[in-house]
From TrEMBL:
Keywords: NADP, Oxidoreductase. One of its GO terms (molecular function) is oxidoreductase activity. The keyword rRNA processing does not apply. CDD domains: 17beta-HSD-like_SDR_c. It comes from the Eukaryota. Belongs to the short-chain dehydrogenases/reductases (SDR) family. This is Hydroxybutyrate dehydrogenase, putative.
Length: 291
């Protein structure tokens, strides 16, 4: 089988960097992208990956130009991994709206623009797989997670829409999946990346201090193994290893904490449907039977 060509966003560290290293080790070809690539992706130059500067917040026209440039490197793109993203923390009342907008610009609209640019290539190839790195936070809102979780909720919708559209219009020639990790041992909670800013409303400062303490304690103690997590995602995206012989699922939790969080949300939602079914169905239009 010919080597696959992977296009991966957000490769400076964490999941993105691991995708680059593991796919190169498998013998595949990789186009590693990120902001300020000359410096932030310098540590990947010796891997053999093609390096491309790509800030997913630039205009859609510029994104299309960059993806065309990426396409010309190997003449095809087989797998897109939408990994670029970051975390903004802050309570709903306290966080400034522009921080929520910045989060959506990168975490959601960035993935949307890159995906739109890649789809024409994959449709012409009549093949391709698109993976989104979502989060268990895309199922459940947590305190101070409005900016991050709203972007991940939006990715869930994007994946659903694409799955439905390509099933109906293009015979699933391109397939889509969103992964929903719990906490993994990346650098996202590193002390060098302060996630909790001083409160704008004084009443929230005690909450922010508790949150900052909790995130500091979480760093380095996350349950998820980064290398294993990426290896399993590669299995799923390629239908190999632990995913051999299985259909690509529309979504997949990763990690015990991700599984437990999403399962709890599903079970709670089903209980609401059961407990309130009479009221829910009472809103339907009643059609009188003709005499």
């Amino acid at each position: 089988m010919e080597p696959r060509v992977w296009l991966i966003t957000g490769c400076s560290s964490g999941f993105g960097e691991q995708f680059v290293r593991q796919n190169i080790a498998r013998g595949d070809k990789v186009i590693a992208t990120g902001r300020n690539a000359a410096t932030k992706l310098a540590h990947l130059k010796d891997t053999g990956a093609a390096i491309l500067d790509l800030d997913v917040t630039i205009s859609e026209a510029e994104i299309f130009s960059k993806i065309n440039e990426a396409h010309q490197i190997y003449g095809r793109i087989d797998v897109l991994v939408n990994n670029a993203g970051y975390i903004e923390s802050g309570a709903v009342e306290d966080i400034f709206i522009d921080r929520i907008q910045r989060s959506l610009d990168t975490n959601f609209f960035g993935s949307l623009k890159v995906t739109r640019a890649v789809l024409s290539i994959m449709r012409e190839q009549k093949s391709g797989v698109v993976g989104f790195i979502g989060s268990m936070g895309g199922w459940t809102g947590y305190p101070a997670s409005i900016a991050y979780s709203s972007s991940k909720f939006a990715l869930e919708c994007l994946a659903d829409c694409l799955q439905a559209e390509f099933a109906a219009l293009f015979e699933n020639c391109v397939r889509f999946i969103i992964f929903e990790p719990g906490y993994f041992r990346t650098e996202v909670f590193a002390p060098t990346k302060p996630l909790v800013l001083p409160a704008n409303i004084p009443g929230y400062e005690p909450f922010n201090q508790v949150l900052a303490k909790g995130l500091n304690e979480l760093y380095g103690n996350e349950a998820g193994d980064l290398v294993k997590g990426v290896a399993r995602m590669i299995d799923v995206l390629t239908g190999t290893g632990m995913a051999a012989g299985k259909e690509l699922p529309p979504r997949l939790p990763l990690g015990t904490d991700g599984l437990e969080s999403i399962r709890a949300k599903c079970q709670a939602t089903l209980k609401i449907c059961e407990d309130w079914e009479d009221l829910i169905t009472s809103t339907d239009v009643v059609i009188e039977a003709k005499q």
